[in-house]
Each structure stands twice: as C-alpha cells, then as structure tokens.
Here is the input.
Amino acid sequence: MKIEELTIERIQRGYQEKEFTITEMIREYFDKIKKEDKDIQAFVTLCEEEALEQAKKLDEKLSKGEDLGLLGGIPVAIKDNICTKDIKTTCASKMLEDFIPPYDATIVKRLKESGAIIIGKTNMDEFAMGSSTENSAIQTTKNPWDLNKVPGGSSGGSAAAVAAGFAPLTIGSDTGGSIRQPASFCGVVGLKPTYGLVSRFGLIAFASSFDQIGPFAKTVKDCAISLQAIQGNDPFDATSVRCEVEKDYLSYFERGVKGLKIGVPKEFFMNGLDSQINQSVQQSIEYLKKQGAMVEEFSFPISQVGLSAYYIISSAEASSNLARYDGVRYGYRTKNYESIDDLIINTRREAFGEEVKRRIMLGTYVLSSGYYDAYYKKALFLRKKISQEFKNAFKDYDVILTPTCPVLPFNIGEKVDSPLSMYLSDIYTVNVNIAGLPAISIPCGLSEQNLPIGLQLIGDHYTEGKLFQVAYNLEQGIDFSIMSKQREGK
Here is the structure.
C-alpha cells in the first residue's frame, strides 16, 4: 500500500505486525514531504529531529510490549496558530515571524500523551482570516488535486497535507468553516467539534466565541479516533466542556442509519449552488434513503443572514484580540518610530496583511459608540435567533445535511481582489459556529474537472457520535480508492 493511502488504523496494524518500525514510517513521511511539498507548500516548519527522536523512544516501548497510546506512532501536523513549545508558531504573519512559544497548547499535550508524533506546522491564512490560504505572509499553499486551485482556508495547509499523503492526521482550527471548507476542497474528512469539546488553550485567538480546534483525516474512523484523544475538560480553558464526554465513538459505526431522521434545509440548495455539487449531494441523499434513513426537506430561512452576523461579531472579536500586537511586548517591532504612537501605528501597518487590517477596521467600526447598537448588538440578537432555530430543528431531526461549500475549488488569485465573493464561500458553514454546534465534512464525489465535492453533516451539541454514524455510512458508498487514483492521474 502506498504511503498516501495509509490510515491511522492501517499504520498501527503495521507496527503491531512488525511490518515496519515507527522510525521507518516517520522517515518515509519526511522523505515524501521533502520531495513533494516544494510544489504544494503545505508546511511552514518541519520538526524532523524531534520527531525521529520520539519515534525511537516509541519503538523501544513497542519492543517491550508496552502500550503506545490511542495515537501511538502516528505522525501529526499542526496548524501554525496552535502553540508548540520550542517550535516556531507564526500564525503565517510577519507579526509573529520569530515567535517561539514557551509552552504547548493543551491539544498538543494531549496528542503527545496519546503517543502521536508532531512532524511540523502547516500553512494557513494569516491569523486564520481567509478562505483560501492565499493570505499567508509566508507562502501560498496549492490544492494537491490541481496545483492551480486553492486548498481552501484558513486551514488549507493542514487539509492539503492529508490530501497529499504527507500525514494521516493533521490539526486545524475552525472559526467559520476553516476546517470543513478546506476539507471539502481537498477531498478529505474534516471535523469541527462542539464548541468547548476540545480545549482552546494555546490556540492563538481570532474570534474567541467561534474558534474551535478539530482534526483532518482520510477516513471518518480516523477522525473519530483522533477526537477521542484530544477532547475533554481543560482547567486552563474557561469555555471547556464540563459534562461527561463520549468515550467510544467507534461503537456508533455499527449502528447504521435506519430510522434516523435527517433534515435537509431547502435554503441551502437555492441560487448560488454549483450544479455539480447539488447533483453529488442529492445522490448522497438518495443513498441514505436506500439505507433506511428518513430524509426530509425543511425550511431554515434565517440561515441566509448568518454570514452577515458572523462577519460583524468575528471582526469585532478579532479587533479586540489583535490589539495586543502593538510592538511593545512581543512580536514584530518597527524600526521606524519616534514616539509610542509611531511605534504602535507603524508596527501594525508593516506587520499585518491586508485581510487582517480589513477585519480589524470592520470590527473597530462596529464596536464604536455610534454604531454598536446599529450593527454589533443586532448581530448578537441574530446569533441568539439562529441558535434557537437550530434548537427547534433538532427537535425533529437527528442530523442536518447540507453541501459544505456552494462552489468548487477556485483558481489561485481568482477572488483575492473580491473579499465579498471570498466570504460567500463560507455561507453554508458559518451558522454552525454561530450556534457552537458540531459538523463534519466528508467527500461525496468528484466534479467533471476531477475536483473533490464535500458534504456537511450538522449535529446538536455533543452529538459527534451521530455525525460519525451517518458519515461512516455515507463513506461506505464512496470509492475512495478511485478518488485517490484519479487525483494521482492529474
């Protein structure tokens, strides 16, 4: 089996059966990255020496018959806005180009405790603001399916790394669709967990009430295994879950979908949806019906205004969160200043990219005394209304099914000068973050141009198990080996 086809399950079986050592596997992944990432540019930092040292220690444990942990020996790449001790964490911004955190984020600690091996940091839109990974101050990541296309954003580097076979598991963050949209564009599985299920301690904030860390993987099962390793309460995160969490997501895989009620909001299938995406999603709906699921269309009109509410609230939070980058305490500092005002203004002007500046200005505007009631307060009201509408919908349905994105992966540079057009690519994903719900994107087909198409499943709070249940069933109807071969043939 080729390395790009290996799943977490398959790799761990290979370790147990002595088909290969952990060190050999890690070396093989680094060889592939060094050979092929110059075209894709998914990674901004590699941690080869540290990874091989960890692999050697795990090989010793394996030879003694010791337990390696849930993710023992699995190479993992981390989005570059998640703090990693003694490893540069830049947020793909000039502002943090030399920042080396003195501590690990909670998720990094939990990955290490579960036996995972950190192999590097992945590229992203600057401070996670974007939908294409073109806003990075470091490099532009390409989509492995077509190097002329974007991989999605802001976690485009993490999604591209899995799609290209550089790692079986990567970690991203999702503020308004930044895991699910690139998962759709790159033909991989991406999960945005319930807000609070995975600790945000050590995640460099964009919009604190929306941000959520989650995994990318090749299969739904790999996604479920990784979630079990990283979830749970964290005393360092005040928004962290306090209730008992599901401990065996894999048990849901045996249940099938017979009798489950799946809602399909008709507003997600109106003008603006690419016809090929619509066709693939409809085929998936028919497949679920044949498996015994009860699929029903319903109206969810308030979803149309979610995008506006999201950009107002998230930009307001970004304006507040990014105020700390002033050239005084840490990060980039301009050399061109004569006063403290010059220091702050010139530092921010020189180190922030255009998209970050745009959102800071929008956020500062809506928070100003003259416009707070007119914009920010109304957006908060809409947020509450959207959350209530979802609550009502989940009284009738176990899961909600939608397309992940209204468009296919677009060309690099195509939407850079049209921010509003770029923002619209998140129209099906932002409502999930507004309500703090879990959602998963899985591949559901290929376009005529041989580009991946993604389908989104949304669940009520802490119902990741049901999402895995439906997603796994759908996955069985998709020939991933054909998808992989078709990508290689491009």
The CA atoms of residues 150 and 458 lie 25 Å apart.
